[in-house]
Design brief:
GO terms for molecular function: L-threonine 3-dehydrogenase activity. The protein is an alpha/beta fold. It is built from twelve helices and 14 strands. It binds 2-amino-3-ketobutyric acid.
Length: about 325
């Protein structure tokens, strides 16, 4: 990796991945491309920033040519709950965007990181110790795009030799940028409201256990996978990846240790509950551990402590 493009740079992952990449590879070497969201000042001031609609292949080509890009972290996509509201738009952005990235990478010799998700699984998948290679028949547009995306990335690797790599991210928890329209968003919102109001009303039911990860681990995973020795990778698109697994009441229990009196209430959103009920409770991420040394650093207790400390500091 030498000259890097990050699409979806203003999103939840992008806004933390870009600074990490700039720190490691040099600010001038990492181009941040956002679209609809207003970029944070730092993203624009600390290195090259551009606006990009990933469905516009000519605009994408120009950026890759102008900046001599050799690696693309393609993060631009609609999340699960939003995609369910706009399935046609989700297909266009999530699939056309990915195909454009792969086509340009084929033409210009770029490596590609594609984030898949626990959303790539469906109701027929084993929900506990979900194997790396298993049934993938999701019943959401987001999941359909993720499975198709995994296959398309593998196809571009075997057919054209494009160095595609990806992970199946669980729900991601972060303090920099809020997620936009996912099923696991409650695990971020609970901290913001918990600190301000000492209570949170959760849209997923008690007992809804899902895989989760703290953003510093998620960012490190993306970079470590792209730096891994290609020869060691038997799987490519995409590796199961997890760090912790919990239900809303377990997260609330941890939060109560730092915010005494915090209370959790429930008001179930049937759409997001149905999506969550079709996703793994706990994935087996042994392949990632064996093939490129994946090791999470944050468990539920460590993540909760760090989230609360950082959010409290930023609100002072
Ligand atoms: C979502 O909830 O849509 C995402 C995901 C798990 O892929 N956070």
């Amino acid at each position: 990796m030498n000259r890097i493009l990050v699409t979806g740079a203003t999103g939840q992952i992008g806004s933390e991945l870009v600074p990490a990449l700039r720190k490691k590879y040099g600010s001038d070497h990492v181009v941040a491309a956002g679209h609809k969201r207003t970029p944070p000042k730092t993203l624009v001031e600390e290195g090259p920033y551009t606006s990009l609609d990933v469905t516009d292949i000519d605009a994408l080509t120009t950026i890759v040519q102008d900046f001599h890009i050799d690696t693309i972290f393609h993060l631009a996509a609609l999340l699960s709950a939003v995609a369910e509201k706009n399935p046609q738009i989700a297909w266009k952005i999530n699939m056309e965007g990915l195909q454009n990235v792969l086509e340009v990478s084929r033409a210009y010799g770029c490596a590609v990181f594609f984030p898949s998700s626990i959303g790539a699984f469906g109701p027929g998948t084993p929900r506990d110790h979900t194997p790396q290679d298993t049934i993938q028949r999701p019943n959401t547009m987001y999941g359909v795009c993720k499975v198709a995306g995994e296959l398309l990335c593998d196809y571009y690797f075997t057919r054209f030799g494009v160095d595609t790599r990806g992970v199946r991210y669980p729900g991601l928890i972060s303090y920099e940028t809020l997620p936009g329209g996912g099923t696991t968003d409650y695990a971020v919102e609970i901290f913001y409201q918990g600190i301000q109001q000492k209570q949170y009303t959760c849209f997923l039911a008690e007992g809804t256990t899902l895989d989760m990860m703290y953003m510093p681990d998620a960012v490190r995973a993306a970079i470590e996978l792209m730096e891994a020795d290609s020869q060691q990778l038997k799987h490519r698109n995409a590796f199961n990846l997890t760090a912790m697994s919990f239900a809303p009441e377990e997260l609330a229990g941890q939060i109560q240790k730092h915010i005494p009196g915090f209370t959790l209430h429930y008001q179930i959103d049937p759409v997001r509950q149905a999506i969550a009920d079709s996703w793994p409770r706990h994935m087996d991420d042994q392949a990632a551990r064996e093939e490129w040394g994946w090791q999470p650093q944050y468990d539920l207790a460590a993540m909760t402590k760090d989230m609360i400390e950082r959010l409290q500091k930023s609100q002072v």
